[in-house]
Amino acid sequence: MVGVSKGDKSEILELFLKIGLDDRTAKNTIANNKVTANLTAVIHEAAVTDGCERRIGNLLYTVATKYPTNALVHRPTLLLYIVSSKIKTPAQLEAAFSFFASTGSENFEVDEFEEACGVGVEVSSEDIELTVNEVFEENKNTILELRYRTNVGDLFAHVRKRLPWADPKIVKQLIDARMYELLGERTAADIEKLSKKKEKKEKKEKPEKDEDKKFANDAPVQLPEEDLFPISNFPPPEENYKVHTEIPFSDGSVLICCNTKEVLDKHLEVTGGNVLTRFPPEPNGYLHIGHAKAMFVDFGLAKERGGYCYLRYDDTNPEAEKKEYIDHIEEIVQWMGWEPFKITYTSDYFQELYELAVELIRRGHAYVDHQTPEEIKEYREKKMNSPWRDRPIAESLKLFEDMRNGRIEEGKATLRMKQDMQNDNFNMYDLIAYRIKFTPHPHAGDKWCIYPSYDYAHCIVDSIENITHSLCTLEFETRRASYFWLLHALGLYQPYVWEYSRLNVSNTVMSKRKLNFLVTNKYVDGWDDPCLMTLAGLRRRGVTSTSINAFVQGIGISRSDSLIRLDRLEYHIREELNKTAPRTMVVLNPLKVVITNMESGTIMHLDAKRWPDAQADDASAFYKVIFE
């Protein structure tokens, strides 16, 4: 953990002004506790509490806001380079960030660092001027055509690509001078701006993602590629050394969660660097169309990266789970066109989860609690610690063993994680790790009478199975803190986590709880009733898995919540059936037509298309019509 000192605001403001920050920036910085703590620490580490040049102060501010937190041990070294003016440009600083982000907390070679950051490299004004002239010569026609509407940033980028360590101020001065030399004074046409009316028109013509303003002629909006499949930009497994999250605590400290080099190397050795994902449904009902999106994300990433995807049953609630649901899920996943790498159950790891819970108690991060659900709710609302929170470790170990052996009644004890009851994130309110349930398990049988919670088991099983990318819907975003807190507390490998929006379809029921109510009370004809949006119901209706996958791919995978209109799905169903469904022709009221120039008894077999878009080289797409 890294301590964060709040300090006195007036003193901190004075400190920030001394390093050259303007008054507005300094005051805005103080409004952000995290940046304030970082910048204060950086100033003290750099030993410039009495002030420094504004150029150096700006670099220190950048360090405070962008420095990779997985390499904090090397920050004092970088600050020495900045204060001594060995690193003096933003480009050099960005290169240093990249170097330390990949190095982490490991030792590094000074020569490699200095080479990567351009330390000691002096670029003369003559060299910069020569390069600027070359860039202008190469882009002369475009500059003359656009004049002062030319994107100067592009010119700057061309120069920086050739001279990465050139002084940006000199580069800008030379570019401005060269522009004036080539174009002369600005004319009225140069400074004329696009009218607001034209700008609004362009914005209006831009394709919109909003389902309410969607497709003309019943065709879906075409989303940008990055919105359709953003997971293609996810980092590879070998780059999973960066900080996953920072967890602020009520005492002012911050927990920084990331993989150490040793943990990541061990993970890569086991996986061979392959991408591993998982589709983890709870077997408490039939899968609906929302699960089709989850399958597309989890199996799709593995397929796109040449990796593997587990089908893992998240079976931690024996009261709601049935063998019927387990069998259905496996069958419907295959019907959707996905092939699991392995089929596993969270219950397969019950012994390991139990042993890790014992270890969590030994490390002082868990305790046995006797509060009732009502008391737990009340204490959480008041942000109060449980009376049993600070009981001796040995006592919690003994009681947890009693829970395991069935010596404590159901509802009389739980194992809770010792997190932070005063945290701003309610998912850090000492979540329950284990509870007592004298209920047989549909997969594990009657071996256990204590069962792990989702919050405890989910992240640990992700780590045990060496999942590289753990993908969840957005409602789990606030659980990031507890997810990484637990893995950090146990010293386990931490997967890369990303959340996406749930699939919400209009005019239908998609909640498993509500679907279960409709089925149980016989309002519908089972889970595969055609009026339900379950995958089994859609299949019974005649919908194909390929049209469902096309629908999911068409709406994209983003972090923005939206309500998808039902006719968007129906569009993809029609498109699929239009290409595959055979047609049958019938003449209801035939009229006799006599052809006078055709010999009597002649029979002709004509080819007719089974569907409008049938390809001529596909024999199965045609059928014979007898003409006589």
From TrEMBL:
The keyword Membrane does not apply. GO terms for cellular component: cytoplasm. Residues 196-219 are annotated as: Disordered. Residues 275-578 form the Glutamyl/glutaminyl-tRNA synthetase class Ib catalytic domain. Residues 11-168, 171-248 form the Glutaminyl-tRNA synthetase class Ib non-specific RNA-binding domain. It comes from the Eukaryota. NCBIfam families: glnS (TIGR00440). This is glutamine--tRNA ligase. It comes from Citrus sinensis. The lineage of its organism: Eukaryota, Viridiplantae, Streptophyta, Embryophyta, Tracheophyta.
